[in-house]
Amino acid sequence: xxxxxxxxxxxxxxxxxxxxxxxxxxxxxxxxxxxxxxxxxxxxxxxxxxxxxxxxxxxxxxxxxxxxxxxxxxxxxxxxxxxxxxxxxxxxxxxxxxxxxxxxxxxxxxxxxxxxxxxxxxxxxxxxxxxxxxxxxxxxxxxxxxxxxxxxxxxxxxxxxxxxxxxxxxxxxxxxxxxxxxxxxxxxxxxxxxxxxxxxxxxxxxxxxxxxxxxxxxxxxxxxxxxxxxxxxxxxxxxxxxxxxxxxxxxxxxxxxxxxxxxxxxxxxxxxxxxxxxxxxxxxxxxxxxxxxxxxxxxxxxxxxxxxxxxxxxxxxxxxxxxxxxxxxxxxxxxxxxxxxxxxxxxxxxxxxxxxxxxxxxxxxxxxxxxxxxxxxxxxxxxxxxxxxxxxxxxxxxxxxxxxxxxxxxxxxxxxxxxxxxxxxxxxxxxxxxxxxxxxxxxxxxxxxxxxxxxxxxxxxxxxxxxxxxxxxxxxxxxxxxxxxxxxxxxxxxxxxxxxxxxxxxxxxxxxxxxxxxxxxxxxxxxxxxxxxxxxxxxxxxxxxxx
Length: 547
Prior knowledge:
By secondary structure, the chain is of the alpha+beta class. It is built from 17 helices and 13 strands. The strands form four sheets. Strands 3, 4, 6, 7 and 10 form a five-stranded antiparallel sheet that branches. Strands 1, 2, 5 and 11 form a four-stranded mixed sheet that branches. The longest helix is centred in the middle third of the chain and has 30 residues. The chain is elongated and about 105 Å long.
């Protein structure tokens, strides 16, 4: 009886039900596997950073299917930390992985929904040249080494796969870690017109201008205009001065390598412009004109040259003939003249003009003993009426004067520096810059053209234009030999230490008489030697006569 009473009281107090229910308890959830993706910014590649640098703040997306990728519906998204690592706690399975940051990615989807495939970078020129690997043109160390998907031994537009390509497989009790290399399809390429123009202005043009000044000094030291006793010149300059030049001479090696380094950089800029939309003819013309000028400087002292539009000098390259070298330079200058303008941008006073290009063509014409072409090119410069012969005392104090056709020292904020400053002296005159081309040379080239053409009266006119500017009386010469003698005297006086003496002595077979006491030998010293380091790198090269 007591037991029944207790049960009745219990039910009244706790509202007993027919079926007792235990409290809700969630079953333990299965722990999801962890996966990590380390993202590398390959645009920051260097020999010390063979994958680039870890990309902080990159977005990594995992897609359950390619259709989800097309619909931009990632299953999971994570952002990389300061170490470039994105972490996921996700179910087992296989996911398509795409990484991005600021336009850099590991998936370059084209209009057909395909992408090139790579998770490896070229680390050296030797890798690019490796003939056992698929051929991939116009690449540099730090660029993606793409997969030869069709196995034909070359990388081209046929080597693509459906995007996205890379997958992340996640398994329980496994180390689910992969990497993603993000970058551009061509890492070395410049992205915009402005970027290329800025690179040319701030970096490459100063190098080209420095190489020009070195070449001007070289001509003076080789000739009777200067000697190696100039302050701060190393012993290698004295070897040049005394014609004890060998293929191991460091000055000669630096001149060759500096010029070709700029040529290859200009090739890189031109290749980048091919992939950039918009108006770019003006910049292309400047790049090709500067490249032609670099080739012309090298050709003057080394003769036949290797001509390349590649980004690297391939070991299989050979020297073109003298005629081929000149033809390339002439074709380049002729092609760009229509896109050049006599009115340079205020911020780019060193840009090449049509007159400058015509003057370079006139120089080449005289090396080919082509008087008619020399007259034609110089007449075009005279016809512009933009230039005038300045007083000799004022030529080197005002780079913006009408005497100056082309100057490559106007961007120097500190003026000329040693050792060039010690070399480029003009008696008691103040010298602040060294022009690359000036109007005086126009008349001297024009006079030489008329001498070669047999036009005595016209040669007299051009010679007297320079004489009267120098406050000398006009003269009337009656023979071609007299004209040549006077022209030689004007060249020596008017273009002193401006880079014309040695090349002109060689061209007109006067070098033995003038430089023989310095050790000049006509069967050996008409050209400089190809540096030994260059010959070793390029087996198809041949050495110049006498070395």
